Amino acid sequence: MDKKVEPPTDLRQARKMREGVVVSDKMDKTRVIVVSRNTMHKRYHKVLRQSGRLYAHDEKNESHTGDRVQIVETRPLSKLKRWRVSQVLEKSA
Length: 93
Description:
- The protein has strands spanning 17-27, 30-40, 47-57, 68-73, 83-90.
- By secondary structure, the protein is mostly beta strands.
C-alpha cells in the first residue's frame, strides 16, 4: 500500500511557493513579506498562528505595502534575499 513518491525531474517544479502580505516596500526592488501559517500545539491542541518575515526580489517594483503576493524560492540574491515575487494576487485598497 505504500506508494513511493518520485521527486520531480525538473527542479523548478520543486521550488517552494508561499503566499503573504507585503509589509515594507521602502527598498528598491526588495519587498519584506510576512508569511503566516497555522499550526496545532502538540499538547494542548490549540491553533497557533506563526509568522515569518521573508525578503523577496521584485524586479519591476510592482507590489506595494498591503498587497497580497505569491513568492517563489530562488537562488541567493543577496545576504537576506532568497525569494522573488512571482505575482501580485490582490492589490491593497
